Amino acid sequence: MAVVILSAGKADIPQIKKVLTQYLLETELAKSNIDLFIVAEYNKKIIGCACLDNSSDVLELRSIAVLPGWKNKGVGRKLVNTLRSRARGMSDRLYVRTTASGFFSKMGFIELNNSYKPNIWQDCACCDKLKICKQVPMVLELR
Ligand SMILES: CC(C)(COP(=O)(O)OP(=O)(O)OC[C@H]1O[C@@H](n2cnc3c(N)ncnc32)[C@H](O)[C@@H]1OP(=O)(O)O)[C@@H](O)C(=O)NCCC(=O)NCCS
Least packed by Cβ within 10 Å: which of 11, 20, 37, 58? Predict the structure, then answer.
């Protein structure tokens, strides 16, 4: 049995929330915008998820997580590769704000200076935690 990557549907929301809450990642987006999500499944069980958010000025990879027992087995790479393929044709660049910069470096993303965050993201510009935020801005050129 192989790990498969599929578009998510409403019925997947509870399992996606379970994956995200393992790492205290926010789950609102899955509830409000499930169509943006993909899932990694093994034997019909969701073991990972990720989201391609095009609801703001920039195209952003969000909410990527893999269940603890499945980490370091190539599932995160499959999720990123799927979203990268979908992102081509939608934009020239794919952004991420992440605490897992080592992983995204391996996926070809380049770190940006923190000072760019408020220019790229409106929610960063308005955020009172901007100065202490640990999320690293990164970008992947899609051309
Ligand atoms: C980050 C995460 C999604 C990676 O998924 P994964 O399935 O474990 O990653 P993969 O097995 O596909 O790893 C691909 C490569 O990245 C490396 N890698 C994985 N996580 C890494 C990390 N945190 N730091 C550095 N390298 C990492 C792997 O060693 C592998 O390298 P290789 O190709 O040289 O062997 C997963 O670790 C996770 O769910 N983390 C917790 C949630 C999280 O932090 N999400 C990001 C929020 S933006």
Answer: 11
